[in-house]
Predict the structure.
Amino acid sequence: MLFELTDEQVMIQSMVREFSRKVIAATAAERDRTRQFPWENLKKMGELGLMGMMVPLQYGGEGADTISYTLALAEIAYSCASTAVIMSVHNSIVCQSILRYGTEEQKTKYLKPLCSAEFIGAFALTEPHAGSDPVSQSTSATRNGNFYVINGSKRFITTGKNAGLVIVTAKTDETEGHKGITAFIINKNTPGYSIGRIEDKLGLRASDTCDLNFDNCLVPVEDRLGKEGDGFRIAMTALDGGRIGIAAQSVGVAQAALDAAVKYTREREQFGQKISKFQGIRWMVADMATELEAARQLMLSAAALKDKGEKYTAQASMAKLFASEMVNRITAKALQLHGGYGFISDYAVERFFRDARVFTIYEGTSEIQRVVIANHVFKDKRQISTKTLEG
Ligand code: CAA
């Protein structure tokens, strides 16, 4: 499939590029040092329509397609990967789940403030003993009249500390496996909801990651998302879209690392010439650019399938798998090309290298993506080969 972006997609990309490189980039290194949550920038992003990009206008969003969204997200990631992951979870997972599975009341109540960034959303699936295997989660939700009583703990929750609203999964029926899992929309002020341990991380330091605890947390029935037993499907569908978002973050950070490497090698002189003149270095840069382009095409291809309303689970996993592994190779090479300067915080490649490390882990490890892809290959071989080869 050859991608010719529409005028509107190019316009969105240019607008976000300008904003990102002027506003977001200015304080990215400082945010990485201080771990300051980017509230001010998120509010500006809300004003620009970046916090509800794929939400229809009637609910306060921009009504943009997934391709435009991935282009915008990559531009934000180019400047600050911490800001990008907050934007990604908020748009791809939280807003999209409410849009797809919410009642009319839930959409009207929650989407507008999410789109304007009045509050930021989080998604709580993972638990201390249930990461790659979310069906084994143990958080429980017991119906009591017009409420559910939620008990348990969630782990590694992106934006958990700063989120105003969290989509939480819990078991409503212990005996039903994945069909016993239900999703709930929980407001941070709900009694029994509390923030637990906050993680100290290698990268993405301006995006908080924490435990969330539920101690007899009372959630009204009208805040159940979907029906009882829909929770696993809601989570899996949300992650399909989320994984395209991680591919976009990977593309953005990799582009930033490649650009930094090109700039540095053009300026650095050794053995009497710019090091960009050495063939060994040029070939390294050529490989980086090629891998990045391949990842960008996979990202766009998965986004295009989603926009066409076709199945895109396998393509989202392929884009996430390849792009997240690509950005780890590219940031490592960009650091190498900087020599000793790449290892110190004066140069941004050090941050890019640290930020990219988690991309092969969150929203499903590379190993889980391979499970998803292999399942699709063995179940329906044509689904992948024809979609990839067709124009
Ligand atoms: N869309 C819709 N439904 C889906 C689906 C999808 N993509 N994938 C599976 N399902 C459905 C199946 O159809 C099946 O339903 P039926 O029984 O009705 O047919 C059901 O779900 C169970 O499917 P599987 O038997 O394939 O499920 P499984 O238990 O073997 O797990 C898995 C599959 C792919 C390994 C899945 O558990 C998985 O993706 N694990 C990784 C979880 C993950 O990514 N966690 C990241 C945490 S979130 C995060 O990181 C966010 C953040 O803060 C940044």
Summary: The mean pLDDT is 96. The beta strands are 121-124, 140-144, 147-158, 165-171, 181-187, 193-198, 209-220, 224-225, 269-270, 273-274. The chain has twelve helices and ten strands. Residues 17 and 75 are 5 Å apart (CA to CA).
